[in-house]
Amino acid sequence: MGSKVRARFAPSPTGFLHIGSLRTALYAFALARHEGGDFILRIEDTDQKREVAGSTQAIQDTLKKFNLLWDEIYVQSERHKTGIYEKAAKKLVEEGHAFYCQCKAKNAKEEGFSNVLRDPCRDKKLSSGAIKLKVPENKVLTYYDFVHKKDISWNTDTVYDATLLKSDGFPTYHLAAMVDDLDMKISHILRGHDWLPSTPIHLLVFEYLGGKRPEIGHLTDILSATTGKKLSKRRDSVFAEQFLQEGYLPEALLNFIMLLGWAPKDNRELFTLSEFVEHFDIQGFQEANPRFLQNKLDWFNGEYIRKLSDESLNSKFKIQNEKFAELTEEKQLQITKLVKDRIAKISDLENIAGFFWKPHKVDKAILGGNSDSHLTDALNIISNIDKWELEELNDKLMAKIKEKGYKIGDFFMDLRVALTGSKFTPPINDSIIILGKDKTINRLKSVL
């Protein structure tokens, strides 16, 4: 790719990290690392009104959980104090590419608020106010989008005079991001599709400031599987931390979003982060908007759960479930091994195995018509069993079923419901061994 690749992830600290932003960070990271370049984290916090306290640290903490570690970090509000953005804006004014504007919106103190394509202040030669871009007439602006793999063009007659520096001295995104991209020698800009309409403004700012313009690529929108529309904070789970709290593993979530807008040449699906970096190819970006399929994410997560050692999975269960953590270490590991192949996320433990530690409750209405006979025979066998082992339990229950002519499915369903309160659990005989003889007997007696 010629000169050193430097890609940046530039979030605004307005709350938790959006899943789409995590994908942008991942792609920028992979692009930089694949080429042996630098991954830059830049916190774009010059819009102080929108900043949410604690977000800057939260963004860094989340990126660390996904192992997307940066080489350099910058905070725009700190850079603002050096005067770098004001200096750039004034340079544009001096060279005739920008102008001062004193227009105000109704009930607003700030200047630079005209809402027409050509600002009425652009030829007034004012010496104070907000600084706005002086868009030239009838000029064609073109760049090659490396995600869309094509040239995209605008005529400047459709581009408005955008505000670059507000009257309070703070830059807008249109100025700050471009100044920083040039100053930090960013080689590739990867950003969301919603920035595409602003690109002609940025092309002009890059041109007027001088220096080597970065390559630009606009990523696809991630669509909700239910609505077919762009993922929405109101309708969908969209924050990376939400998914981690729900019991998705960082490695699985990262693998899932890798393939929401990028595809390998061989249709491979499972990638660790290092494997993704190794196989990353800028030509793999796709133009079609991907759908966020929850069942696909669940599949990925299940695959990664199965790869964990029993001890590692057990420790994750303990972190997420206090009641589980109160069981003996031996019981914890027995339960972990029992559910490992049956869960899609860490939080499924409560639904599938909560009966081991929750208060015993049974809705007798879901027991079968022969439940009294089934449970009485089961109680007698379990009470008199000598070796508390799965094989002996299996043999003796099956012998009784055969002797009495019970239907196997009905018998074990009644036993399952009586002991767990649910029709959906891990294998019931394995569960009985873990539950223990005394607890099993007490539960059967309470139902009978």
TrEMBL record:
Domain Aminoacyl-tRNA synthetase class I anticodon-binding: 327-447
Residue positions binding ATP: 233
UniProt keyword annotation of Magnesium present: no
InterPro entries assigned to the protein according to its UniProt record, in alphabetical order: aa-tRNA-synth_I_cd-bd, aa-tRNA-synth_I_codon-bd_sub2, aa_tRNA-synth_I_cd-bd_sf, Glu-tRNA-ligase_bac/mito, Glu/Gln-tRNA-synth, Glu/Gln-tRNA-synth_Ib_cat-dom, GluQ/Sye, GluRS_core
Keywords, comma-separated and alphabetical: Aminoacyl-tRNA synthetase, ATP-binding, Cytoplasm, Ligase, Metal-binding, Nucleotide-binding, Protein biosynthesis, Zinc
CDD domains, per the entry: GluRS_core
Residues that, per the record, bind Zn(2+): 101, 103, 121, 123
Cofactor (UniProt): Zn(2+)
Compartment(s): Cytoplasm
Catalytic activity, as annotated: tRNA(Glu) + L-glutamate + ATP = L-glutamyl-tRNA(Glu) + AMP + diphosphate
Placement of sequence motif 'KMSKS' region: 230-234
Top-level taxon in the UniProt lineage: Bacteria
Keyword Metal-binding applies: yes
GO terms, biological process: glutamyl-tRNA aminoacylation
Complex and partners: Monomer.
Similarity comment: Belongs to the class-I aminoacyl-tRNA synthetase family. Glutamate--tRNA ligase type 1 subfamily.
Function: Catalyzes the attachment of glutamate to tRNA(Glu) in a two-step reaction: glutamate is first activated by ATP to form Glu-AMP and then transferred to the acceptor end of tRNA(Glu).
Record protein name field: Glutamate--tRNA ligase
Gene (UniProt): gltX
